Amino acid sequence: MSVPLRLPLILLGIAVVVAIVTFLLHKIKIRWIKYIPAVVLLLFTILMIIMSQGSTGEGMQDLGWVLMAILSISGAVGGGVTAIVLDLLDRKRS
User: Fold this and answer.
1) How confident is the model over 42-68, as pLDDT tens digits?
2) Where does residue 22 fall: left (phi above 0), alpha (psi -120 to 50 degrees), or beta otherwise?
3) Which residues lie below 8 Å from residue 30, measured CB to CB, with a gap of 6+?
4) DSSP-H helix ranges across the chain
5) Are 75 and 37 in contact (CB under 8 A)?
6) I need a surface site. Which of 18, 19, 24, 46 has the fewest CB within 10 A?
7) CA atoms of 60 and 70, how far apart (whole Å)
8) Rounded to an integer, what is the distance from CA 69 to the centroid of its chain?
9) Each residue of 20-41: pLDDT tens digit?
10) CA dist 3 to 6, 15, 38, Å?
């Protein structure tokens, strides 16, 4: 597999996994529960960005925090978009 293609595939894989979890949570008929994965990952992203800004810069630790933020924001976007689309589809059905 080509090296430049590896990161986008990982980000897409994370987004798909979170979208599947969101879809499974959608089966529970509580309307707001499908937003939990996106909100948790968004909070995790904010925490990782704060950790990278407050890091001492020793080694590559701050780069690791930024990479974790990038990975978690892809899941948050995937879950959030899936939850919104599922809400829109539910409103069309009713």
Assistant:
1) 999 999 999 988 877 777 888 889 999
2) alpha
3) none
4) 3-26, 36-53, 61-93
5) yes
6) 24
7) 16
8) 9
9) 999 999 999 888 999 999 999 9
10) 5, 20, 28
Calculate the CA dihedral of residues 37, 42, 46, 52 and round it to 10 degrees. 70
Amino acid identity for residue 53 in this structure: Q
**Predicted TM-score of the model (pTM):** 0.87
Tokens at 58, concatenated: 């020793």
CA distance 80 to 42: 10
CA distance 76 to 37: 7
